[in-house]
Amino acid sequence: QVQLVESGGALVRPGGSLRLSCAASGFTFSDYYMTWIRQAPGKGLEWVSYISSSSRTIYYADSVKGRFTISRDNAKNSLYLQMNSLRAEDTAVYYCARVHYYALEAWGQGTLVTVSS
Amino acid sequence: QSALTQPPSASGSPGQSVTISCTGTSSDVGGYNYVSWYQQHPGKAPKFMIYEVNKRPSGVPDRFSGSKSGNTASLTVSGLQAEDEADYYCSSYGGSNNLVFGGGTKLTVL
């Protein structure tokens, strides 16, 4: 079955960096667009970034543009999110999800990123 | 403030039907048939319930249905069951290569 497992969440100080990973299994990873979605504590869902199957197409939400970098390694069935210049408002659970025509078909369990001094 | 507007709460008794609205603009909900709905139980990841306005993925009960009229999409849950109590989020392609979400609706089964 489709499985997505995020890792890398941690407590980090403002201005710091963190790299999230998402390990995919149960499907042909290289066939799908993938995305990162986040959810601040007690808040709603926010789209962060998505990447095409070949990595040729990448888009970011304005709130993270210039600070976050999405990437993937199809040989390792893995998706990544490099987060730099972290701010308190980046505190959230970060989910990776498989995309099909702008629908998020499968989600991981999420990894918590806390930005605090 | 979320791009799409949902009521903060909705409720119904077991067996009843409840409809949750999701209002956007002609640039998102009204402009594309890429509206999706997600169910999220406390402490859990969202679950994919509806895509392309009114299509159900396999495994989702047919008690869940979606529709759209103009700039407003709706999710209807018929024959409410206790396990339907959860937060529900709508999303839509927002043009300019971005995805927009509603603020979420907490559904209570009375």
Summarize the structure.
The complex is a heterodimer of chains A (about 120) and B (about 110). Chain A is built from no helices and eleven strands. With about 120 residues, chain A is mainly beta.
List keywords for this structure.
heterodimer, A: 117 residues, mainly beta, four-stranded antiparallel β-sheet, 11 strands, B: 110 residues, six-stranded mixed β-sheet, three-stranded antiparallel β-sheet, 44% strand, globular
Helix and strand topology:
The complex is a heterodimer of chains A (117) and B (110).
Chain A (H helix, E strand, L loop, with lengths): L2 E5 L3 E2 L5 E8 L7 E7 L5 E7 L6 E3 L7 E6 L4 E6 L8 E9 L2 E5 L3 E5 L2
Chain B lengths: L8 E4 L5 E6 L11 E6 L6 E4 L13 E6 L2 E6 L8 E8 L5 E3 L3 E5 L1
Parallel strand pairs in B: 1-9
Antiparallel strand pairs in B: 2-6, 3-4, 3-7, 5-6, 7-8, 7-9
Order of helices and strands of chain A: EEEEEEEEEEE
Q: Structural class of chain B, please? A: mainly beta
- Indicate the low-confidence ranges of chain B by residue numbers: none
How helical, in percent, are the residues of chain B?
under 10%
Number of helices of chain B: 0
- Share in β-strands of chain A: over 45%
Unreliable parts of chain A: none
Shape label of chain A: globular
Question: How would you state the average pLDDT of chain B, rounded?
Answer: 95
H/E topology pattern of chain B: EEEEEEEEE
Descriptive account of the structure:
The complex is a heterodimer of chains A (117) and B (110). Chain A is an all-beta fold and 117 residues long. Helices cover 0% and strands 54% of the residues of chain A. Chain A has strands at 3-7, 11-12, 18-25, 33-39, 45-51, 58-60, 68-73, 78-83, 92-100, 103-107, 111-115. In chain A, β4 and β5 form a beta hairpin. Chain A starts with a strand and ends with a strand. In chain A, 40% of the residues are buried. The mean pLDDT of chain A is 97. With 110 residues, chain B is mainly β. Helices cover 0% and strands 44% of the residues of chain B. Chain B contains no helices and nine strands. Chain B has strands spanning 9-12, 18-23, 35-40, 47-50, 64-69, 72-77, 86-93, 99-101, 105-109. In chain B, the strands form two sheets. In chain B, strands 1, 3, 4, 7, 8 and 9 form a six-stranded mixed sheet that branches. A three-stranded antiparallel sheet of chain B has the order 2-6-5, with no helix packed on it. The mean pLDDT of chain B is 95. The A-B interface holds A 35, 44-47, 50, 59, 61, 95, 100-110 and B 2, 32, 34, 36, 38, 45-48, 51-52, 57, 89, 91-93, 97-104.
